[in-house]
């Protein structure tokens, strides 16, 4: 990342690497190169802004992580992203932590459904990650109604997992989706305000997002 920041600074003939150069380097390393040639229609831009705002608002409401930056500028394979940081580098996660992660991942899709009455393909990667966490909770960590049981030692074998395992994982995801959708609906105006700001500016820092949402809550 430091090397990338140095390259970015050198390209504009800077003698000193500044904070903005590190920010750009983080975006490039984490999210990929900006796709400046990618043309996004007004409606697509609104969908992406709403989706990323859903992730950001979920993060803010659940308070499990801190927003570093939110953007709807296409980078790598992503059409937009919310960069999050954890205040504590955890090695151990409680069940609630994992449920919050799933809810945050599903926040983008829930926001789309609230705003447009439909969902898009933009939540594909989010759904994959949420499913992975839910299956781990059920099949490896003993965090479901199936009880204190783990199939972790059988993951590399030809063992066929019981269908009940997948059903329980689906139940976890469905309940998380229901909860985050209800939370976002309760804060619908905040969601719209954030999406509109993102549409206008395309990239917002974590501090700007926090100030906006705190100010909105105080009124």
Give a description of the structure.
By secondary structure, the protein is mainly α. It has 2 domains: about 1-30, no CATH class; about 40-219, Peptidase M41 (Methane Monooxygenase Hydroxylase, Chain G, domain 1, Up-down Bundle). The chain has 8 helices and 3 strands, in the order αααββααααβα. Strands 2-1-3 form a 3-stranded antiparallel sheet, sandwiched between helices. Helix 3 (about 40-60) runs antiparallel to helix 4 (about 95-115) and helix 4 (about 95-115) packs antiparallel against helix 5 (about 125-140). The radius of gyration is 19 Å and the shape is globular. The N and C termini lie far apart (about 40 Å). The model has no long low-confidence stretch (mean pLDDT about 85).
Helical proportion? 55-70%
Radius of gyration: 19 Å
Physical arrangement of strands within the biggest beta sheet: 2-1-3
- Which structural class fits the helix and strand makeup? mainly alpha
How would you describe the shape? globular
Task: Tell me the span between the first and last alpha carbons.
Answer: 40 Å
Mean pLDDT across all amino acids = 84
Could you state the order of secondary-structure elements as H and E?
HHHEEHHHHEH
Based on DSSP secondary structure assignment, what is the total number of beta strands? 3
| Overall tally of structural domains | 2
CATH class of the largest domain, anyone?
Mainly Alpha
Low-confidence stretches: none
Describe the sheet with the most strands. 3 strands, antiparallel
In the CATH hierarchy, the third-tier topology of the largest domain is known as Methane Monooxygenase Hydroxylase, Chain G, domain 1
Oligomer: single chain
Number of helices: 8
């Amino acid at each position: 990342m430091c090397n990338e920041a140095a390259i970015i600074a050198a390209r504009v003939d800077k003698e000193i690497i500044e904070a903005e150069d590190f920010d750009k380097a983080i975006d490039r390393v984490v999210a990929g190169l900006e796709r400046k040639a990618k043309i996004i229609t007004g409606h697509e831009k609104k969908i992406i802004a709403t989706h990323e705002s859903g992730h950001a608002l979920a993060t803010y409401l659940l308070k499990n992580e801190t927003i570093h930056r939110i953007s709807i500028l296409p980078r790598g394979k992503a059409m937009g992203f919310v960069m999050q940081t954890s205040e504590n580098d955890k090695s151990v996660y409680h069940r609630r932590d994992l449920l919050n992660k799933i809810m945050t991942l599903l926040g983008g899709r829930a926001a789309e459904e609230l705003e447009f009455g439909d969902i898009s393909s933009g939540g594909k990667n989010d759904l994959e990650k949420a499913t992975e966490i839910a299956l781990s909770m059920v099949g490896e960590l003993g965090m479901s109604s199936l009880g204190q049981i783990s199939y972790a030692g059988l993951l590399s074998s030809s063992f066929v997992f019981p269908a009940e395992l997948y059903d329980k994982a689906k139940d976890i995801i469905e309940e998380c989706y229901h909860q985050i959708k209800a939370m976002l609906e309760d804060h619908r105006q905040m969601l719209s305000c954030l999406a509109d700001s993102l549409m206008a500016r395309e990239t917002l820092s974590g501090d700007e997002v926090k100030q906006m949402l705190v100010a909105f809550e105080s009124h």
